[in-house]
């Protein structure tokens, strides 16, 4: 029996009577779906008519007729009484399932699989299908798949080898669980492969080539390798491989919260590295991170066997590829340097220094003698934020021609010193020491930093990274003027300046004291040459600051260390012995960083002892702890007043003079806070002088006046003043305030003149005279501006340019020493020299890029605290900073290099220097030429001084000074470790441990080595 759609609306439960109109002859039973219109491949036996088949329970042939109402009139119209529908029969889910399976089995003769397959392929009931496939129903595809995957009937399939298989197509797998899991695995694998193909395309940003003609391909360069490399690779992977990224990251952790919180083996770092290796394995062109990692290995001198291992497993390219990349990087660095040097709108400074190592032959013989290997290394620093017009050559020439140098006097040199500024920074340093060691006052550090950047500032440099370009090294000897001239021409040529074509402007070239002196000498000898280049008139010699401060520290140690017995509590040696520090092996050339740290520590403790005396306390720490409990801590204004008075009493020259004479600031009021407190009376006898006093004519010795001063206190004041100036210069240098640094340099001129380091007297006289008298204000500001560099671009990380050059020299010397080559050899010039700076910086920047802070070797707080306690007890016991009239320990009464220097300059040394430096100037423009330019030995005692300290060996320790949050922080650098890592690579290269077989065709290219420096 077949029903129409209208008739189907009269539905009712089984056994319900239906009108006679439904008595329609039965039709043969057939399936649902019609002709081959939708599925032409189905057999003809499955072809059916479109009407829907109604099962037998709904047929009405056997239904009884409704009985008529006997009380109803035959003539009455239809009854309007609403017929109540029969009650619905509630069926359970199981009843419905039984009916469904009975229907498809008995009526349709289908299996359950037939129903699922044909309904998923059929377009019948488009509306209901769309409703289901869009997930708008109560139960979605996900519910069905979940039930299938966990249905008990499929439990046997979980042990099948076809579970999650990628080898057998999922369409051929019949069990439910293996089929579903393999289907998921195979479509995920297909999507991951698609993502990987997108990631290794040229447009992805993961390609880097050593040499390529394709303009879209990124060429290897140092800006592409560093701290941003890892982050760039991670962002590309997350954008192009989101599925791969999610799977790897979630595989790397057990709990999702660890993705963002875990510090060790961060999941995102691990995932980036793993996916990058997979991409590199898929295509050797997607090599950005592997190539950068390989250069990091190269710079860290990884053992060659380790290198081969990581190359084989895909972490890095082949060693020969890395070596080829280093050559290309060197050449491109040279091209960038040349382009900047040729640009008329730019300016830069060259810093050079001598490099040397003693080469011992393993098998000496004729032609294989031990020798001193000497050379020169240089770096070109770009200078920004300066007025280019200030470097005009004609303006500088006119100012020199005015001859103002001849009018220089000692009084004028003194007038250049800003004494009020020195008192301001001295006061701030007193407060800074107190805030650093007293925790209760630490909240004032921000205000102190503000005063440093406002009240104390002179010429603060902008905080931005300095761009540097290492130059190819030379095997020339700077002590031989002809060699030195050739080396200068070589370095100038690398920035595009040649005798035929050069920029007619001043080119600053800096160096240590010896290099500075040789440049001045060359300019004097070559002044009669034809053009400005040949005469080196375009060269502006600069004295670099770090070697100057190093020499000043050596002067400080020589003046204040004291005797070996260390009986004088004011001597630096006495304090060092109390805390277990050893005497430097050479007081004329001390090891800079450890000895600077010791001197500044002793200065801090002596300042704390003076603060203790000022507040009348036996324990400075307990005093402020008690004040904090009572809420009676001094204000910053109170600290300023006290610090200014302490500066005048314990650091100024007048304070030292008053201590030597035994007088007070306010003699009328002995208890005045302006006075130094009177200590216990000195009762020890005065030691006999080394030189006996002169006798009178009658044979009686000349009576010695009673000494009323305090020699020990005066010496401590002298030490504190010299060390304060040294630390102020270091703070100003690290903070990037070159104006403050220059103020200290002007004072150091006099202290050098009063010491045995008189070579630096001439160097500083030349520097100060040039800046104050022979430069325009713009040029003076520009020359000071370029004297400091900041490689990191962070606050408090400025350094002197020669310090950076010295660091590079150490690494280069280690390479050349191990290699046994010359500094002008092609391998050194074209592989190491130009890349050494970037390789050295890569390790620190790379660690920062993966979230690792560089290791800092600093003195621990516990160790420093113990040393402070010991020294405070010594100073309190000896009453070092109290005035004890008559206290004297030896015949040398006075230690004041500043006063000695002023006297020496006033008594004729300044005039001799002026005569020496002016009589041979401007010979080209004179009518007559001086016949004899040599200076006799007795005419200028500057020439009889000891050899320049710059000719001696460099210090055995290296480190950095940083000014962070108002504190000067020392960080040691293990140069032995740095050098050992570098020379390990040289061993590998020298022994031929790599071969071209390991190289990859993609990046293998031939690069010219360039001319060798002869």
From TrEMBL:
Where do Acidic residues bias regions lie?
A: 993-1003
Stretches that traverse the bilayer: none
What protein is this chain from?
DUF6589 domain-containing protein
- The residue range of the signal peptide is none
- Start and end residues of each stretch annotated as Disordered: 67-87, 684-705, 993-1014
Q: Which domain of life is it from?
A: Eukaryota
Q: Where is the DUF6589 domain?
A: 404-859
């Amino acid at each position: 029996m077949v029903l129409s759609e209208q008739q189907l609306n009269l539905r009712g439960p089984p056994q319900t009577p239906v009108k006679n109109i439904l008595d329609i002859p039965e039709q043969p039973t057939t399936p649902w779906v019609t002709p081959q219109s939708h599925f032409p491949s189905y057999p003809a036996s499955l072809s059916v008519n479109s009407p829907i088949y109604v099962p037998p329970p709904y047929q009405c042939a056997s239904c009884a007729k409704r009985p008529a109402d006997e009380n109803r009139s035959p003539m009455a119209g239809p009854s309007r009484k609403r017929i109540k529908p029969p009650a619905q029969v509630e069926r359970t889910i199981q009843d419905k399932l039984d009916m469904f399976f009975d229907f498809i089995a008995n009526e349709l003769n289908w299996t359950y699989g037939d129903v699922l397959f044909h309904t998923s392929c059929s377009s019948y009931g488009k509306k209901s299908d769309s409703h289901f496939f869009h997930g708008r129903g109560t139960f979605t595809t996900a519910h069905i798949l979940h039930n299938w995957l966990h249905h008990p009937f499929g439990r046997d399939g979980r042990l099948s080898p076809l579970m999650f298989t990628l080898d057998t197509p999922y369409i051929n797998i019949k069990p439910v669980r293996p089929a579903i899991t393999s289907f998921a695995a195979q479509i995920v694998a297909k999507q991951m492969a698609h993502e990987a193909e997108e990631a290794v395309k040229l447009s992805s940003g993961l390609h880097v080539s050593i040499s390529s003609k394709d303009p879209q391909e990124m060429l290897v360069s140092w800006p592409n390798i560093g701290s941003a490399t890892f982050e760039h690779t991670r962002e590309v992977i997350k954008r192009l491989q989101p599925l791969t990224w999610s799977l790897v990251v979630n595989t790397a952790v057990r709990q999702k919260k660890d993705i963002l919180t875990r510090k060790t083996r961060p999941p995102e770092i691990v995932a980036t590295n793993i996916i990058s290796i997979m991409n590199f394995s898929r295509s050797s062109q997607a090599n950005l991170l592997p190539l950068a990692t390989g250069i990091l290995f190269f710079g860290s001198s990884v053992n060659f066997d380790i290198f081969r291992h990581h190359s084989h497993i895909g972490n890095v390219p082949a060693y020969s590829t890395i070596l080829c990349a280093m050559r290309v990087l060197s050449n491109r660095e040279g091209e960038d340097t040349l382009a900047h040097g040729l640009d008329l709108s730019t300016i830069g400074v060259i810093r050079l220094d001598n490099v040397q190592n003693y080469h011992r032959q393993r098998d000496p013989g004729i032609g294989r003698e031990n020798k001193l290997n000497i050379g020169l290394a240089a770096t070109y620093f770009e200078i920004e934020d300066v007025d280019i017009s200030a470097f005009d050559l004609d303006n500088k020439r006119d100012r020199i021609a005015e001859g103002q140098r001849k009018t220089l006097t000692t009084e004028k040199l003194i007038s250049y010193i800003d004494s009020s500024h020195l008192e301001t920074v001295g006061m701030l340093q007193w407060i800074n020491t107190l805030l650093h060691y007293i925790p209760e006052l630490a909240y004032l550090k921000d205000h102190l930093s503000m005063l440093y950047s406002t009240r104390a500032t002179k010429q603060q440099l902008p905080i931005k990274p300095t761009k540097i370009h290492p130059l190819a090294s030379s095997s020339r000897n700077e002590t031989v003027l002809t060699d030195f001239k050739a080396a200068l021409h070589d370095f100038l040529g690398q920035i595009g300046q040649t005798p035929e074509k050069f920029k007619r402007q001043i080119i600053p070239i800096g160096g240590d004291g010896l290099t500075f002196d040789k440049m001045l000498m060359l300019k004097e000898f070559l002044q009669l040459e034809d053009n400005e280049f040949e005469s080196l008139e375009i060269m502006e010699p600069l004295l670099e600051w770090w070697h100057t401060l190093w020499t000043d520290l050596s002067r400080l140690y020589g003046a204040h260390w004291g005797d070996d017995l260390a009986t004088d509590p004011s001597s630096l040696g006495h304090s060092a012995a109390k805390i277990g520090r050893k005497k430097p092996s050479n007081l004329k050339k001390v090891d800079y960083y450890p000895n600077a740290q010791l001197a500044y520590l002793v200065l801090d403790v002596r300042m704390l002892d003076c603060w203790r005396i000022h507040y009348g306390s036996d324990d400075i720490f307990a005093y402020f702890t008690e004040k904090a409990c009572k809420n009676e801590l001094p204000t910053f204004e109170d600290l300023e007043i006290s610090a200014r008075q302490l500066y005048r009493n314990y650091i100024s020259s007048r304070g030292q003079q008053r201590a030597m004479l035994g007088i007070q600031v306010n003699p009328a009021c002995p208890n005045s806070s302006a006075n130094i407190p009177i200590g216990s009376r000195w009762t020890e006898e005065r030691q006999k002088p080394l030189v006996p006093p002169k006798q009178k004519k009658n044979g009686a010795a000349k009576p010695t006046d009673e000494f009323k001063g305090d020699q020990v206190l005066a010496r401590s004041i002298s030490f504190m003043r010299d060390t304060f100036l040294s630390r102020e210069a270091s703070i100003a240098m690290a903070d990037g305030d070159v104006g403050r640094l220059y103020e200290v340099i002007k004072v150091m001129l006099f202290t050098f003149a009063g010491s045995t380091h008189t070579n630096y007297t001439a160097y500083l006289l030349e520097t100060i005279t040039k800046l104050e008298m022979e430069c325009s204000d713009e040029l003076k500001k520009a020359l000071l501006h370029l004297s400091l560099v900041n490689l990191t671009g962070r606050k408090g990380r400025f350094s002197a340019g020669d310090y950076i050059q010295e660091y590079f020299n150490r690494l280069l010397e280690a390479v050349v020493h191990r290699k046994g080559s010359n500094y002008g050899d092609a391998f050194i010039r074209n592989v190491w020299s130009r890349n050494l700076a970037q390789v050295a910086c890569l390790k620190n920047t790379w660690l920062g890029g993966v979230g690792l802070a560089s290791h800092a070797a600093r003195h621990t707080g516990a160790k420093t605290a113990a040393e402070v306690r010991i020294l405070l007890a010594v100073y309190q016991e000896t009453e070092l900073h109290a005035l004890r009239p008559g206290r004297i320990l030896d015949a040398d009464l006075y230690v004041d290099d500043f006063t000695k220097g002023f006297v020496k300059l006033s008594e004729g040394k300044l005039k001799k220097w002026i005569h020496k430096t002016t009589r041979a100037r401007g010979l080209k423009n004179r009518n007559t030429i001086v016949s004899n330019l040599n200076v006799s030995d007795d005419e200028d005692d500057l020439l009889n001084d000891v050899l320049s300290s710059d000719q001696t060996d460099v210090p055995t320790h290296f480190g950095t000074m940083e000014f962070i949050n108002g504190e000067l922080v020392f960080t040691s650098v293990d140069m032995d470790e740095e050098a050992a890592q570098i020379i390990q690579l040289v061993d590998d290269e020298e022994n031929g441990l790599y071969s071209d077989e390991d190289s990859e065709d993609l990046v293998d290219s031939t690069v010219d080595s360039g001319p060798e420096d002869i």
